[in-house]
Amino acid sequence: VQSPIQTEQQLLMALATGDRKATEQIYRQNYKVIDGWLNKNGGHSSDAADLFQEALVVLFGKVQGGDFKLTSSIGTYLFAICKHLWYKKLEKQRRDPVFFQDSHDAEDNETALAYDSDINVHHEREAHFEQLDVALEQVGEPCRSLLKAFYHHDKNMQEIAADFGYTNPENAKNQKYKCLTRLRKLFYSQQAK
Amino acid sequence: MYNQNIWEVAETYMSGALSESEKQDLKIRLETDINFANEFYESIELINSIEGSGKQRRFREMLRDIHQKQSVPAAPRQKAKLIWLRPQSWRTAGVAAGVAILTSTITFWSLKPSIKKNDSQYTTISREVAVIKKVQAQQQVEQNKLKQDLKNNLKPVPPPPPPSDVKYTGTGFALTNDGYFVTANHVVHYDGKNEPDSVYIQNHDGQYFKAYLVAYDAGADIAVMRVEKKNFHFGKGELPYVFATGKSGLGEDIFTLGYPNDELMYSKGYISSKNGYNGDDQQYTLELPAGHGQSGSPVIDNDGNVLGILTAIGSQGDNASNTYAVSSEALIDLLHNQLPNETTLHLPRINKLGHFDRERQIEKMEPYTFSVKVYKK
Questions:
Q1: Following DSSP, what letter does each residue of B277-335 receive, concatenated?
Q2: CB–CB of A18 and B357 under 8 A?
């Protein structure tokens, strides 16, 4: 029997590696609160999963960069990110101005800015990934499939050699380098525009 | 190292596996060969990006999987609504369907002595409970769902509905939190003269409460009633709205909440004339979609002031699209002049709706708005 992950710090470090157990624990402990809140604030349970998962991706991105210093507990952090994401979404839809029902709670200006900054970093990262995906779609076969197999699906060179019909992993690896060169050209010429 | 593939160098560098001498070589080359340096930094950034993108992709997939496996149930708040709202309504609907076969499904015409309201162009909008067969299949589904929910022991068994025949339904809304409310008089005195056997309200949770008549004004079409139950409260706090003491202007935006059936219905419009049917100065004429069952609904402006009470719709010719409401002035008149002496009824003073968006205004109104059901054998 494995012992449950203890401290928040340990949870975050496990989350950074994409550890499933840690992620499940965080999910279980926090989802219902978000779902309940959203239902009282103009959303539905169908939005709650998307919203909560987006907040988890924000946190995931943050700890990827080695930043484990949250201003609050994981739960409070995720809740705040969800609120900010949700209000931004409502603003975008230009609905009636949202009344910040709980604006009086612990969130001071500085904290609000910190959350906003994390969300902005997240959006920039998303935009960057999107550009990369565009380049990846243009890179042509077999490069597109090969790069996706290695980087997206986390396959190793042995598997790739077998799947793509290369005589050995070394050949597959050389092919991967050629593909990366093509991708680099595409991606940076795009960025230069 | 000079002959090595740049990607191989980048990957080895990133994994931290370069030897000291290789690091030194790399450093010198980066400092001296600007083309190589550019290419090298781009390569590192690209690998970082595509690795990060892949990790995030896998993380998202894992989240979706976790979500499915944990199969978190929907928010309990919504479920509670489904459980409470329906069970009573289909029981009464069953009774009502029986009644409707005996009576006809004609529109209810007000038979009050006043001439203007005996006019065929003026239809009061209480709802004669009509045939509801078409929803019976749906009711079966809901019934099964309820049974399932009860089996799961999520909620206690709801209180039983009153054992009688629903004759008419309308809408009412609270005057005070301790049980006084107002509705249209024609809902209660449905055929102009006879007292009903009993009047119940059914609140947004589906619960029934018996009510008695306190005062009414047939001409203005207002009835003030009170819930019988001791220590009754409509909601947790004071009413969120206040009553306008004067008449509002032409063109003012208004909205209403009512129970044309067992679901709360919202509609909005504007004041299209400061006077009502045939120039009645106790009334407003509204451009507002309304139908049977909505008699007695509050007419509220954007700031949460109650301007009036819905009473009738035009039914023919030029009046067909009009909706009529009695002004809150007439209500306040009635409260000042016709209440029994021992009555203490203080209208709310503080408007708590002003700052909210419409969805939240409705949410706050919900406990204080309810269906009024009139029973007569």
A1: GGG-TTEEEEE----TT-TT-EEEETTSEEEEEEEEEE-SGGGTT-EEEEEHHHHHHHH
A2: no
Interatomic CA distance for residues B266 and B233, integer angstroms: 23
Pairwise CA distance, residues B213 & B227, whole Å: 9
Per the CB < 8 A criterion, the answer to whether A83 and A98 are in contact is no
Strand B198-202, strand B283-287: pairing: unpaired
A30–chain B nearest CA distance, Å: 11
A137 touches chain B (CB under 8 A): no
Q: Please answer yes or no on whether A23 and B63 come within 8 Å at the CB atom.
A: yes
- Check residue A116 and give its pLDDT: 84
B227, β-bridge pairs: B211
Model confidence band, residue B119 (pLDDT cutoffs 50, 70, 90): low
List the one residue out of A20, A91, A89 whose CA is nearest residue A54.
A89
Contact (CB<8Å) A42/B359: yes
Crossing angle of the two packed helices B20-32 and B6-14, in degrees rounded to 10: 120
Rounded to two decimals, what is the model's pTM? 0.47
Q: Which residues make Cβ contacts (< 8 Å) with residue A119, sequence separation at least 6? A: A58, A81, A84, A85, A88
Taking one residue from A and the other from B, the number of pairs with CB-CB distance under 8 angstroms is 105
* DSSP helix/strand/coil, B224: strand
**What ipTM did this prediction achieve?**
0.89
A149 and chain B in contact, CB less than 8 A: no
pLDDT in tens, B212-231: 988 888 888 899 999 998 88
Interchain pair A151, B51: CB under 8 A:
yes
For residue B96 the two structure tokens come to 């009502």
> What tens digit of pLDDT does each residue of A32-78 get?
888 888 887 777 777 889 999 999 999 999 888 777 777 788 999 99
Q: What's the per-residue H, E or C state across A76-127? A: HHHHHHHHHHHHHHHHHCCCCCCCCCCCCCCCCHHHHHHHHHHHHHHHHHHH
Provide the 3-class DSSP secondary structure of residue B202.
strand
Q: What is the pLDDT of residues B35-71, one digit of tens each?
A: 888 889 999 999 999 999 999 999 999 999 998 887 6
* Interchain proximity B53–A152, CB inside 8 Å: yes
| Closest CA–CA distance from residue B52 to any residue of chain A (Å) | 8
CA B38 to chain centre: 61
Residues of A in contact with B253 (CB under 8 A): none
Put simply, whether A69 touches B (Cβ < 8 Å) is no
Residue A101 has pLDDT above 80, yes or no: no
